[in-house]
Amino acid sequence: MNRRLSLAPWTYGFIVAFAMWIATTAYAGFDSAEATLTAALTFGAFSVLVGTGQMLVIASGPGNIDLSVPSVLTLAAYVSMTVMKGHDGMLFAGLAAAVAVGALAGLLNFLAIMFLRLPPIIATLAWSFVFQSFAFNFGGEVTLKPPAMLSAFTLWRIGGVPFMPFAVMLLTLATMAVLSRGVWGRRLLAVGQSEPAAKLAGISAGRVRLIAYCLCGVASGLAGYLLSGFSGGAALNMGDVYLLESIAVVVLGGTSVAGGQANAVGIWGAALFFNLMATMLNTFQMQAGVRFVLTGALIILIVAIVPRPRAA
Amino acid sequence: MADVMIRPTSNARPAWLSTSLQVGLPAVALVLMLAVIFWIRPTAMSYFGFTLLFKLATPLVLAALAQMLIIMLGDIDLSNGAFVGLITCITALHLGTNPLLAIALYLVAIVVYAGVGLLIQARQLPSIIVTLGMSFIWLGTAIIILPSPGGAAPGWLAGFMNWRPPFVPLPILLAIFAAILGHFVITRSSYGAILRGAGSNPRAIERASWSTTRIRVMVYAAAGLLACLSGITLTGLTTAGDPNVAPAYTLLGVGAVILGGGSFNGGIVSPVGTVIGALTLSLAGSLLSFLQVPPTWQIGAQGGILFLVLAGRVLLSEKKS
């Protein structure tokens, strides 16, 4: 194979994202460059958060996927907003509530997969219906307002650099460390590559997957908590876009859907690509339909041209 | 090359029994739901009642069968619902005024569907992400040609969907027809066995000198055709086109296939089971409103029904060693 062309798969997202940033800046003027990038980083941080959780689940073996991400995100946002009732003092109680909702959702997903022997797609889909109902009964059509401090936190800048994307980057680094060095991370990839082999090596596949689903739930819950602070409250449809986006950023980021192989950095490239493309097409004043078509075409194009690691 | 798993034949149920269990389970669920509905509202047990209860089942049955073909190959189609939405737009805009144009557009759409199959096969891509991309493309195209819901179904189409054939209501008649046709093509015919084989053991099919590329292209085209029919019948029911009319079909279709005994591993699908699964899912909504479940809990209760029916599989299935 031509050495020159064999760029790592996950770099493509960054390259395309960078090209879009240049194109947007060229069109809208140089002044907008920094604002465009900040917005993409901030929105991208949410995609990366849910994507990282989804990646852990997808890496845990063929067929594993979590379709309950948007409903867990929404439910966690509603529960934490209800707990905090807009008081700054309850900030950590709300955070704990969001994390607890996420972990519980992950546990329920795993139990349905394990004991009802359902395919993960169906189990997490059925639970997502249930979670949606709960969210609906918590707040209904009303948007629950976040505490002022939470909103301030999501927009917080240190020396002009937005803090939240930075924190999510640290999370990405931590995930990379866990996957390459941590015992659980190695086990996760081992189970994903070959469950029988992992079992023969004495790994409890069930426990490894349980933690993956719980972490995915927690990531979704956390995203719901932060997103409701960022966007001014919990709303019923706040999670909808993350159903497809969480899957897309993981696969475009170079993680194999066959499991057993994960790439945390790549998610950032794909997430920036997604958000910068939305900005770019908005700047070009494309109509919504054209935007969708181009999004879809680019997803397929990137997947089709990027050399992929051989599935085990 | 130990790809082939040899199942122990002792203690295993005979093949006919496990297939009838696969199909039987959603059928039992369907009968139970009907029993509850008739118990609450005995007047529903009539020709008219059946027509109303299953009114919206026809497009879902067709979409589920389309999904079944894809799952048969071990793939999954996340673009199914968006595609049905696009077809309703084409139907509402053109089928009445310019039928030739509409048919040409259907053909183009089906060819694109086949092209997706070709791309997935040729580059060995994960179907989940390619069809995810396609779902954006179908939705976008639908929004471009019909930005807001509108258009009108041709009179004959709406008339056909409201047609009352003697004795058996139309949705039931079409479901039975689809189930029988699917049964003979996929489950009983020798070519059906090849198709299922392409999903469960593509290498074996290749060695038997069948082209898996041709199979995948043809199956994707057939799925496109079924999804097309789903969109056309749906337009006949709603009498308008709407890009966002059917996003739920994607996952409901997957649910129906699995309810009907299908497996994501490929090769194991049942057309009869899928049709019954789709009927069960479309009846679940009616059942919940008959039980006077508050609207805010209805979607959650649908998740519960999905669990209940599928939990039955665990009770009935053979223990895996």
Count of individual beta strands of chain B = 0
Q: How much helicity do the residues of chain B have? A: over 70%
User: How would you describe the shape of chain A?
Assistant: globular
Q: What CATH architecture of chain B would you give?
A: Orthogonal Bundle
Segments of chain B where pLDDT lies below 50 for 5+ residues? Answer: 1-10
Quickly give the structural class of chain A. Answer: mainly alpha
Order of helices and strands of chain A: HHHHHHEEHHHHHHH
Number of DSSP helices of chain A?
A: 13
The number of helical elements of chain B comes to 14
Output mean pLDDT of chain A. Answer: 88
The portion of residues assigned to helices of chain A is over 70%
**Largest protein interface, residues of each chain:** A-B, 47 and 45 residues
Taken as a percent bin, the fraction of beta residues of chain A is: under 5%
> What is the 3D shape of chain B?
globular
Q: What is the end-to-end distance of chain A?
A: 20 Å
Beta-strand content estimate of chain B: under 5%
The SS-based structural class of chain B is mainly alpha
Q: How many domains of chain B, as an integer?
A: 1
Q: What distance lies between the first and last C-alpha atoms of chain B, to the nearest angstrom?
A: 22 Å
Characterize the structure shown.
The complex is a heterodimer of chains A (312) and B (321). Chain A is an all-alpha fold and 312 residues long. Chain A has 13 helices and two strands. Chain A has a domain at 44-240 and 256-261. Chain A has helices at residues 11-28, 32-59, 69-84, 91-115, 120-139, 148-155, 163-180, 183-193, 195-200, 205-230, 241-252, 264-283, 288-305; strands spanning 157-158, 161-162. Chain B has helices at residues 15-40, 47-53, 57-72, 80-95, 99-123, 127-145, 155-161, 170-188, 190-200, 202-207, 212-238, 247-259, 271-290, 295-316. The two termini of chain B are 22 Å apart. The chains are: A mainly alpha (312), B mainly alpha (321). Chains A and B meet through helix 5, helix 11 and helix 13 of A and helix 6, helix 12 and helix 14 of B.
